[in-house]
């Protein structure tokens, strides 16, 4: 009888305490991206490449510290993206591209795979960390998306850090804007697109996803891309996967890319890699949509397909007590 009770207790612990390390089991994992586009090794000086690698590795270390110590996937996603928002190398937060009026307009979203709660902001200009504003919308309002002045007022009400719009200015992005404006005042001339994102799986089996961006260079008329749209640029569901997208947002919106990957897994039985590759390298590419996604499923499998020349990306996974990690930029 005692032996039966002992075995029953052990089984209970393995089922109900996912934080307990098991041989061969993924304890936690995190994947990040810093945009997809015309990223070519031959055109990137070695010092610049090192700056990107160092920044991506720093974000991974932040996420690892949170997840390793029992933090939630939501906390890891927000913290990683906050760091990338403060890095001028990426098109999010400080370093965001300029719109047609020479202003920085920021978008972000976040989603909890455990309960499908989500929040997003769009077209904001004074919130230092848009991803934190998105999380506040999710957790402290009855809404999913807030935009413009309303989103900024909400952020102020929540005591989030506000900055003067000039805080987001970087000379490189301004020079890019002036160059494009001088040649053609059109979206077609805006060149590559970029954004930052993160997906994470914590020790408790919960997935989360987040995305933050400055949008498209030279965007007009209050344009909003896929990044703040749940199901297009961001999606998380514990029963399938977490996804963050980067690329030409109009195509990602039309194809509801992030949700489509999840749906193919849930309803057609595809693996994560099969679903993500089908959407990015076949469905999207056939329409002329360029970009990529980072994805993570509930078992810790990851996928990072893209149909552009390159994509800034990094991953970290703890499995059976071993840590696997990497950073890549090119094909």
Structural summary, described in words:
The protein has 331 residues and is α+β, with helices and mostly antiparallel strands. The chain has helices at 2-16, 46-68, 73-85, 130-140, 148-157, 171-183, 249-254, 257-268, 272-286; strands at 26-37, 106-112, 118-124, 145-147, 196-201, 207-213, 234-236, 241-247, 291-297, 302-303, 310-319, 322-330. The protein has an eight-stranded mixed beta sheet. A four-stranded antiparallel beta sheet has the order 7-8-9-10. Helix 2 (46-68) packs antiparallel against helix 3. The protein starts with a helix and ends with a strand.
Strand content: 15-25%
Radius of gyration: 20 Å
User: How many DSSP helices?
Assistant: 9
Summing up helix and strand content along with how strands pair, one would put the structural category as alpha+beta
What is the subunit organization of this protein? Answer: single chain
> What is the ordering of alpha helices and beta strands?
HEHHEEHEHHEEEEHHHEEEE
Number of strands: 12
Largest pleated sheet: 8 strands, mixed
Strands ordered across the widest β-sheet: 4-3-2-6-5-1-11-12
Low-confidence parts:
1-23, 187-191
What is the mean predicted local confidence, pLDDT? Answer: 92
Name the shape in a single word: globular
Helix coverage percent:
25-40%
């Amino acid at each position: 009888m005692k032996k039966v009770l002992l075995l029953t207790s052990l089984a209970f612990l393995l089922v109900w305490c996912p934080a307990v390390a098991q041989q061969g089991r993924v304890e936690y994992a995190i994947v990040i991206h810093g945009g997809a586009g015309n990223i070519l090794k031959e055109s990137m000086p070695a010092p610049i490449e090192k700056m990107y690698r160092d920044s991506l590795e720093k974000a991974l270390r932040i996420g690892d510290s949170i997840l390793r110590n029992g933090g939630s996937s939501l906390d890891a996603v927000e913290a990683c993206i906050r760091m990338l928002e403060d890095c001028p190398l990426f098109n999010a937060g400080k370093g965001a591209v300029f719109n047609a009026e020479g202003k920085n307009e920021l978008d972000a979203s976040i989603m909890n795979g455990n309960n499908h709660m989500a929040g997003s902001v769009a077209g904001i200009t004074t919130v230092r960390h848009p991803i934190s504003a998105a999380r506040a919308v999710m957790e402290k309002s009855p809404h999913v998306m807030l935009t413009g002045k309303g989103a900024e007022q909400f952020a102020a009400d929540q005591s989030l850090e506000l900055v003067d719009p000039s805080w987001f200015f970087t000379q490189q992005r301004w020079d890019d804007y002036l160059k494009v404006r001088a040649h053609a005042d059109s979206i077609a001339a805006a060149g590559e697109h970029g954004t930052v994102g993160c997906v994470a799986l914590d020790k408790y089996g919960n997935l989360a996803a987040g995305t933050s961006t400055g949008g498209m260079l030279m965007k007009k008329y209050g344009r909003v891309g896929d990044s703040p749209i749940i199901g297009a640029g961001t999606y998380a569901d514990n029963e399938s996967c977490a996804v963050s997208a980067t690329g030409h947002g109009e195509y990602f919106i039309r194809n509801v890319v992030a949700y489509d990957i999840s749906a193919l897994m849930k309803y057609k039985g595809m693996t994560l890699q099969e679903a993500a590759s089908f959407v990015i390298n076949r469905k999207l590419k056939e329409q002329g949509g360029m970009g990529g996604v980072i994805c993570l499923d509930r078992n810790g499998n990851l996928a990072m397909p893209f149909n552009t020349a390159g994509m800034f990306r990094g991953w970290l996974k703890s499995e059976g007590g071993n840590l696997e990690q990497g950073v890549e930029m090119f094909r």
